[in-house]
Amino acid sequence: MILWPVLVVVLYFTIPFYNNWLFTKVLNNNFFYETSNMELEARNIQRFGYSYTVYKDIENMLGKKENVTLLLPSNDYVKTKKIPDFIIPEPAVFYYFTGIKSVWPNSPDAKSANWVFLVAGPRNMAVKQIALVHNQDSLLADYRKYIK
């Protein structure tokens, strides 16, 4: 009786797609590290890496300010700056990680952005306040060139 469920599971993971998932997502993890670091922050840093630490730095910088709307560049824009292992999340995910409202350049609310995340190159990123309207228009135009 118990042999059938075991046989089904074994056959299921012989399919190449599921076998690849098993070995890359499940069995590739460092279980000893994960069990010794159970707090959420440590697990997020391990899972999301450099990108997550940059998001948390932005949160530390802007978290106390009121009415912040951050303009995020697209991932294609970031790729042109040759920054490895850095991903710009969608605004909902960014809000989940930081609690800061953000928009993409192609968003209908892009004009409401009063802060911008500037990316110049590896380890050369900054968050600046948008001071003048013409600055915002030029930033939006520059960022929109990289949206597919």
In brief:
The chain contains 7 helices and 4 strands. It is α/β, with parallel strands linked by helices.
Describe what this molecule looks like in 3D.
- Helices cover 51% and strands 13% of the residues.
- By secondary structure, it is of the alpha/beta class.
- It has a four-stranded mixed beta sheet with strand order 2-1-3-4.
- It is elongated.
Helix/strand layout:
Blueprint: H1 3-12, H2 16-26, H3 31-36, H4 40-62, E1 69-71, H5 75-80, H6 91-98, E2 101-103, E3 115-121, E4 124-129, H7 133-144
Parallel strand pairs: 1-2, 1-3
Antiparallel strand pairs: 3-4
Query: Could you say which structural class the secondary elements and strand pairing correspond to?
Result: alpha/beta
How confident overall, as mean pLDDT?
A: 87
Largest sheet: 4 strands, mixed
Number of helices: 7
Oligomer: single chain
Gross geometry: elongated
* SSE series: HHHHEHHEEEH
* Order of strands across the main sheet: 2-1-3-4
What is the rounded Rg?
21 Å
